[in-house]
Each structure stands twice: as structure tokens, then as C-alpha cells.
Amino acid sequence: MPIEEAIGIAEMIEADLEEILAIEAVSFPSPWTKIMFMEELLSPISQNIVARLHGEIAGYIDFWIVRDEVHILHIAVRPDLRRRGIATFIMGDMIRRAHGRGAFAATLEVRRSNRGAIRFYERFGLR
């Protein structure tokens, strides 16, 4: 079965944060805290999406939609599931949601040294 058929997308909820914080800790040099994620869950401009694979969180994305622009805050995939198309699937869902709300431009920040992330974002037309 292709991985796209096994992935489920859902809104992030507080109960997801334990798994998300574990992914966050191994994905970023300055990981977000539970409080930071809670603030995003409560923010009216924040979109918080999880991808589930076999009932477990495989990855997530946090982004804002402000007027006609998306600002990507965080995207991460569990290390043992990377390079299997999950981040691409998550980005595709984010793009569909953004377009549905009239957003057609996107911004994000990425470390210059993170060549893998830069190549990933370039595949979506981001610079």
C-alpha cells in the first residue's frame, strides 16, 4: 500500500503534544515547548495539522494564514519515517488549505546550513 493511502490528516489537539514534543526534541536545535504549542492551538490564525500513520503521529505542521499569505512555522516528521513522502503529503494538505482560504504566497525561515530542508522547500517553489 502506498504511504499516501495509509496517512490520515487531522487537526492537532492537546492530547497529541506528548508525541509531537518527542519529534520536536530530535528535529530542532531549539525545540518548542508545550506552552508554545498550546499558544498555537489557541491562536485564531494558527493552523496545526498532524499526520497519522497506523494511529501514531508521523509528522506535523504549524502555519499561520494571514490574509493572502501563509507563514510556515514548523514542519517535522518522526526520524524513523523520514524520506517516505510524509512531509510532502503534509505540505500538500497545507497548500490545499491555504488555497481554500485565498492564500497563494508563503514565507518561512530555515537555517542556511539545512540543505535538506532548503531542497525540500524549493520543490514547492519556495525560495
Count of distinct structural domains: 1
Q: What average pLDDT do the residues reach?
A: 87
How are strands sequenced across the largest beta sheet? 1-2-3-4-5
- Number of DSSP strand runs: 5
Q: Note the gap between the termini.
A: 33 Å
Radius of gyration: 14 Å
Can you write the helix and strand succession as a string? HEHHEEEHEH
Unreliable spans are none
**Might you state the CATH topology name?**
Aminopeptidase
Shape: globular
CATH architecture: 3-Layer(aba) Sandwich
CATH top level class name: Alpha Beta
Q: Note the total helix count.
A: 5
What structural class should be given to the helix and strand makeup? alpha+beta
CATH superfamily: Gcn5-related N-acetyltransferase (GNAT)
Beta content comes to: 25-35%
How helical, in percent, are the residues? 25-40%
Q: Describe the biggest sheet?
A: 5 strands, mixed
How would you portray this structure in words?
- A hairpin with a 2-residue loop joins strand 2 and strand 3.
- This protein is 37% helix and 29% strand.
- It is globular, with a radius of gyration of 14 Å.
- The protein has a single domain, classed as Aminopeptidase.
- With 127 residues, the chain is an alpha+beta fold.
- The N and C termini lie far apart (33 Å).
- The chain has a 5-stranded mixed β-sheet with strand order 1-2-3-4-5, sandwiched between helices.
- The longest helix is centred in the last third of the chain and has 15 residues.
Note the topology:
Elements: H1 3-6, E1 7-11, H2 17-27, H3 34-42, E2 46-53, E3 56-66, E4 69-77, H4 86-100, E5 105-108, H5 115-122
Parallel strand pairs: 4-5
Antiparallel strand pairs: 1-2, 2-3, 3-4
